[in-house]
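User: Predict the full complex structure for these chains.
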Amino acid sequence: MKILNHYQKENITGYLFVLPQLLVFGLFLVYPIFEGIRLSFYQINYQSEKFVGFDNYVTLFNDPIFFKAIFNTVFFVVFIVLLTVLFALFVASSVFDKNAKYVTFIRGSYYIPVMVSMVVMSMVWSFLLNPANGLISYYTRELGLGNINLLGNPYTVMPVIVFVTFATNVGQSIILYIAAMIGVPKDLFEAAEVDGASRFQVIMKILIPSVKPITLYIIITNIIAVLKIFVVIQLLTGGGPNNASVTLMYYLYNNAFKFNQLGIASAVGVIMFIITLILSLPQLRSMLKDK
Amino acid sequence: MKKQKLKLRVERFDLISNGVVILFALLNLFPLYWLITSSFKNSTDVVKMPPDWWPATFTLSNYIDVFKNQPALKWTYNSIAVSLVTTFLVIIFSAMAAYAFSKLNFKGKNIIFIIFISSLMIPKEVMIVPLFRIVQDFGLVNQLSGMIWPNVASAFGVFMLKGFFDTTPNALREAATIDGASEVRTFTQIMLPIIKPGLGALFILSFVQVWNDYLWQLVVGQDKTVKTLMVGTATLMQDLNPNFAYKMAGATVAAIPMLIIFAIFQRYFTTGISAGAIKE
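Assistant: Here is the predicted structure of the two-chain assembly.
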C-alpha cells in the first residue's frame, strides 16, 4: 500500500510539473491545428460558418496566383538554403581554427544583421534599392546601366529577395558550423597532415563530413524558416510587381487579414502544415533516436 | 623540399579564403553603417548623390521627429514588456516540464514528450487564422497578452533545457530527497542553479525571437498605441513624410536595443544557438 502510494505520488508530481506547459501547448498549438483543419472546410463570414467540403481547396487550385506563390516559395527555399549552407560552410571552415578574437569578430559581423532583424534589414535594403534616390540605383546609373528598378522588374525581384534574405540570416548557420567544427577531434586533422593532405583536402574529406548532422539540422530549419518567408516580401515588394514575388505566407496573410477569406486562408495553412510536417520527419527521427 | 612547397600552397589558400571572409563580413555590415549614418543627416543630404559617407551636417532632428510624431516610446515599452514577460513564462514553464521529463517518472511521460518534440519544427504562423480566432475569443486582440501567450506554447525551451537537466548527476537529487527536501525545493534550490547557463541561453534566444516576432504582433496589435517597436517602425515605411532620414532614424531606433543586447551577451548567443541544435 505504501509503495503504491509512492508511485502515485510520483505520478502526480510529474503531471503537476508538466501541467502549465501542457495547458498552453494544448490551447495555442495543438488545438489551432485541428481547428485550422476544420475551418478549411468552411466558408466563414464574420460569425456565420457554412460547411462547403473541399470547395476552398478547389478554389485554391484554380487560382493562378496560388501556383505562383507555390513556385516562388519553392524558388526561395531552394536558392536561399543552398546559398546559406555553402557560404556558411565556406566561412566556418576558413576561420574555425584561428585565434579566438578573430573568430569572435567574424561571428559577430555576420550575426549582427540576424539580431537587428529582418524588419530593419528590409527597410535598409528598400532605401538602398529605391529607384529614385537609393545608393544602389545611383551606382547602376553611374555605371551607365540606365535607370534600373531591381524591385520593379519581375526578373530581378526574385534574385534580389534571395540575396537580401540570405545576407541577413546566414550568420545563424555560421555560428552553428563554427561551434560544430571546433568540436571535431584534432587527431583526425593531425593524421591527415602527416599524410601530406592539403588544407583544402582536409576540409573537404574530413571536416565537412564530420559536421554532417549539423548540416542536416541547418538545411531543415532553414527550409522551414524560408517556407514562411513574409517580412521581406511585405516590406520590400508587397508581393509585386504584379504578384511576381508573392509567397505562400504572404498569400495566406492577404486572404486572412485583407480579403477576409478565412476559409481559404485556413486551407493554405493546412497545406503549409502538411509540407512542414513531412519536411521535419527526418529531423524528428534523429532527435527521437538521440533521446 | 617537397613538403615546404605544399605548406606554402596550403597557406595561400587559407589566406585567400580568409580575405574573402573578411571582405564579405564588412560588406555585410555596410547596410547597417549606411542606415545609422543616414539617420543623422538632414532631409536633403540623405538623398544627395554622390553620397556623403559621413554626415556633413550632424542632426538629431530625425530622432526628435520620430519620438514626437510617433508613440515610439510606447512601442519600445510594448516590445520590452512583451519580450520580457514571454521569456519569463517560457523559462518557468519549460524548466518545470523539462525537469519532469528528465528526472521524474510518471505514466505517459514518453508519449507526451514525443508530442512536444513533434511540434518543434511547425511554425505557428501556418495556423495563424485559428490562432487569431482563439485570441479573439479570449478578448486578447489589441492586448499585449495576446502577443504573449502563443509564444509561451513553444516546446523549444522544454527540448533545450531537458538536454541541460540530463547532464546533471542523479546522485545530487537523490541526496536532497534523502535529506527530506520536497520535490519543489529540490527543483528550485538545487537543480535550477545548476543549469543556470542553460537558462541564460534560453533567456537570450527567447527574448530575441519574441522581439522579432513581427507577423503575429502585426496581426494582434492593431491600434497605434499597442503596436510593438518592430511593427510600429515598419509602418513608417508607408508614412507620408517624404524625408528618408526620418524613416532611417525610426529603423535605427528599432535596431539599437538588439545591438546593445548582443554586445553585452555575445557569449550566451553562441552557447544558446548551439545548445538548441541537435547533439552529434
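Chain A has a mean pLDDT of 89.
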